[in-house]
Write a structure and sequence with these properties.
With 401 residues, the chain is α/β, with parallel strands linked by helices. 40% of the residues lie in helices and 12% in strands. The protein folds into two domains: 241 residues, pyruvate-formate lyase- activating enzyme, CATH 3.80.30.10; 119 residues, no CATH class. It binds iron/sulfur cluster (SF4). The site of iron/sulfur cluster has 10 residues, from loops.
Length: 401
Amino acid sequence: MDQEFINQILLKEIRERKIPLSLGKTCPVKCTFCYEKDHSYFRKTYDIPLTTEENWRFILKTIQSLPTKPSESWVIGGNEYMEWTDLFLHPRTMTWIEEFLETTDKNIIMFTVGYVDPQNINRLAEKYPGRINFELSVITLGKYRKQLMPNGPSAEHVLKVLDGPAVTSANFYSFGPNTMSEDARIISKVNSKCLLWMGCLTPLKTLDSETTRVTRLGREHLPYEAKKVYDANYPNITMLHTESYITAFLNRKKIFKTLDACEIEKKDTVVMAGNVYRVLKLFRPNRAKYLYVPNATLGGDSDCTTLLTFNDIAERLTDQRVVYLPKVIMEGSGNQEKDISGNLFEDFQERFPRIRFKVLHKVNSSMSNKKLYEKGYVKNYVEDYLGNPLHKKFEAVALPN
Ligand code: SF4
């Protein structure tokens, strides 16, 4: 691979606000739940070799030349055109981060399962207050850790990383009774300031059966686990973010209002995944024709309108003449109208010349992200979801075949 080509990929990443380091190999952590195990349907990636000092000079110089926007953070640990790995396994990452913080006025957001030296990262957080947003993927500290993250850092190491000012948010999940709630207790004791970000891991079709079993066990016990966290009333902010059906139910009024604002009529066909379908079928059964589309691309238990692909929709189209599509489906990445698997809206339209597709611009990712955060607290889930008897009826709404 020649240097010119590598630089082109690095520049593409930089345009997406990534700090594009590479390990030059697939991720050695081998988490069994990793969504990158088979990402061929997500996006095209390039095998970029291990980042060298020369590559780093190029990356840093390019980023330094760009204007700083206060609201912007540069991502380290989530590339767009290279496979995801834990970039903190690169032996130079910490040194380069320090140089980045020293020689620019830009903020960083970092994702890792904990491959950082606890002293070093906490020292950097003290030296550059407010500049590092550190999202630590704890996943679980309990008995499933070894099974789910065979090469992950030890729970003891993760707790040392948490013990200090560096970690802004720790994410971990329910895998059955006394998993998520127990982790919340342990983490809050070590760090009472970081945000606790909880929920379930969604099994996709690519995961093995044992991982799927454990994640489903987690979902089954989520109400109990969340109530325990709620009752403990920790000083940390506690959020629950990963279940799209909960988000849809909690934001049902906004969903009705947005649909009304889109001026849709009863005869109109509107595309949606199961989360929104259940809400509308239960509370507004005849507002329009709801075209339920399963998340077949991702498979498993995924159930989210944002993550639908054009191929998923294509499978469900029949004799419709006009079909309304939420804008959120085509905000995959960059400035083009693409779905999460990188397929273009214009190519999809060409496949169905007899159908007129209309875009619901108000159903966009800025609105859905806003709502996700607004009602994404454990308190919302316990009080407004579990505490509302209608949630059982909502969960029982059958999805069409
Ligand atoms: S550390 Fe991240 S990228 Fe690596 S296997 Fe685990 S989840 Fe996947």
